[in-house]
Structures are given as structure tokens and as C-alpha cells.
Amino acid sequence: MSRFSAALAAALIAVAAGLAARPGAASSVQTAPGLIAEVVVTDVGRPIQLAFDRGGRLVVLSHGRRGDAAGEIHRLDVTQALPIDAGRAPRVVIPFSEAPRKPTLGSLAVDPRTGDLYLGEENGNRVYHLETHSRLTAVAVGLQHLVGGSSIALDGDGRLVAVDYASPETQGRAEVPPPPGLDVLGTGYQGPLIFRVTLGDGAALPRRLDLVPPFFPRWWISPPGEPLTRFMAVAARSDGTLLLLDSLGQVFRLTDAGELLAVTRLPAGHYQRTSLAVTRDGTLFVSTGFHVRRLFRVSPGGAVTTVASELGDPGGVAVDDEGRIYIAETALHRVIRISPARAQ
After folding, report:
1. To bridge 193 with a disulfide, which of 89, 213, 214, 280 should be the other Cys (CB 3.0-4.6 Å)?
2. Count of Cβ atoms closer than 10 Å to residue 269 Cβ
């Protein structure tokens, strides 16, 4: 054996030993210095959204491998031995509707007060509450185009926040014609919409979002300045402020008074099906989808850093109480966790 062959063999043995020491290592993922990625869930068919419930379990919304259901929900205890084989774990299968309209589910939000799960249609018009026995109850209808990803959120008061867009194209996707009020006002508004509505306190459900004024822009009036591009994702901070990401990678802050403020801009790319997670201190994590394939961190002051890259179609993102980050790699049918190397 040549010295080169011997050196190569030694290197391969060293790599194999390293992988054996960390059986869940996500070796294909590149992380920032001081961080490490490990696989925590395997064999979950096309996971697209993540959240933590009140019991600390990781909630995974997936499309499943066979495509014969509107969605599947896993609740996984990630404090146990990892990785978890989701193919062997219990799950809730949400069947397609028996009606001619058979949407799939693409958005997931958890009520921070009750732990209830809310699900939004992907490229659809409705938001549902998931009740027992996998039964869906519509809580909001009349959206023009709900895109999936983090297009819905529940704020600290349990109000539903939904991202929508008004244009002739999206109106063609709507279940009902545009609200008559628009014709009366004569605004002809086209652009991004943010709805924020209560779901409790005696509110009649489902909420007709086509018949209520949006939270933004107020009274359907375009804000001054350059026309806004489409908002793709929303996250609610603990103080009630909303963080928004548009299709160009621009991050905005929407105050309770309805004032829209620019925060920062992510590196150039197509930000389509994107997901957001915000921590208690206001730090925002952005999972960028299959075009960009990165996870970004946006500090409360707007500084942008790359946490991980070379991700396999990153979908949902969630952060646990210890600050560890979970990402759904949709194309690889798995969930990974990123944490400081010293914690391993």
C-alpha cells in the first residue's frame, strides 16, 4: 500500500469514527463556527412546518410520503434517544375533504395560551382549528391566496394573524368575489394584506376575512412610498409586534398601531415558501426554502448572520426553551437540530 493510500485509509477511518461518535450527525449541512447540526427525526414524509406545544413536544406537519391525505401531524418528544424514527411513531392523519374542493395543509400555528393547533391551506383560502379525532373546523375563510409556510401565526392574545395579497390574479383564486366595500371606497387597492382577528370571546366562526378591513393597510389605503411587494411570512413577538418577510427578503416590523417599519434585508434570492421563528428576546430565524437553502438569524437590531447553509429544502423552523433550533428538511424527509457544539 502506498503512503497516499495509507493516509487516505486513515482519513476514512477517522471520518467513520467521528460519525460513529455522533450517529445523528447531519454531515451534509454547513453550520456557522461553534455550531453543530444533528438529525433528530427521520422517516417523516415531506415535513413542512414545525412548532412546539405547551408540553414541549415537537409538532411536525407533513404531507406524508403517499400524498393521500391533506396532512399528517406528529407530536414527538425530542428529549428521548435520538434520532426518532417517525415512521414508527404515532401520528394523526388528516384526510382530504369529502367535498370536491380538496386542499392540502401548508401552515401551522400554536396558540401560546391553550396549545391548540391551527392549520392553513397551502395555496388556498382557509384556516382551520384541529380538534380531536383529526377533525378540522374552519375558523377563517375568504382569503384570496394563503401561500403556506409561516403565512399564519397566533399572537400572545390568541388572535389569528394571516398574510394575504390583493390582485386580479389572487382574486381569481378567491372562493368569493371581492368585498363590495372595495367598490364603494373606489380604492382598487392591490398589494399585501395582513389580517388580525379574534377567534374567541363570542366571535362568530368562521371569520369572513373577505368582509373585514385588514389590520394592514388600514382602510385598504396604500401606505406612502414605493409599492410594497408580497409578504410571504409572519411571526408574532411577545409584545404584540409582528415581524414580516417579503418575497425579496426584506424584513419589516409592524407595530400595534399599524405602522410598517423596515428592519433589514436578507441576501439576494427568491424567498417564496419561507418559515419564521421568533425568540423571547425578539431574535428572528428565517428558513428560506428550496431556492436559498439557508437559515438566517436576524438580531433585534437587524444584523443578519448565516446559521446554516446547504440545507435540503428547509421548511418549518422552531426554537426550544434552551435556544436550540429545529429545521424541517423537506427534501430529505427529516428534521435536524442546530445547537452549540459544546452542548453535544
Report:
1. 214
2. 15
How far is it, in rounded angstroms, from Cα 174 to Cα 143?
7
- Report CA 108 to chain centroid distance, whole Å: 7
Domains and CATH numbers, the chain: 25-343 (2.120.10.30)
Query: SS3 sequence, the chain?
Result: CCHHHHHHHHHHHHHHHHHHHCCCECCCCEECCCEEEEEEEECCCCEEEEEECCCCCEEEEECCCCCCCCEEEEEECCCCCCCEEHHHCCCEEECCCCCCCCCCEEEEEECCCCCCEEEEECCECCEEEECHHHCEEEEEECCCCECCCCCEEECCCCCEEEEEEECHHHHHHCCCCCCHHHHHHCCCCCEEEEEEECCCCCCCCCEEHHHCCCCECHHHCCCCCCCCCCEEEEEECCCCCEEEEECCCEEEEECCCCCEEEEEECCCCCCCCCEEEECCCCCEEEECHHHHCCEEEECCCCCEEEEEECCCCEEEEEECCCCCEEEEEHHHCEEEEEEEHHHC
pLDDT at 17: 35
Using 50, 70 and 90 to split pLDDT, how confident is the model at 226?
A: confident
Give the separation between CA 93 and CA 249, rounded to whole angstroms: 34
Q: What is the pLDDT of residues 24-64, one digit of tens each?
A: 778 889 999 999 999 999 999 999 999 999 999 999 999 98
| Phi and psi, residue 192, nearest 5° | -70, 150
Q: Could you tell me the pTM of the whole model?
A: 0.89
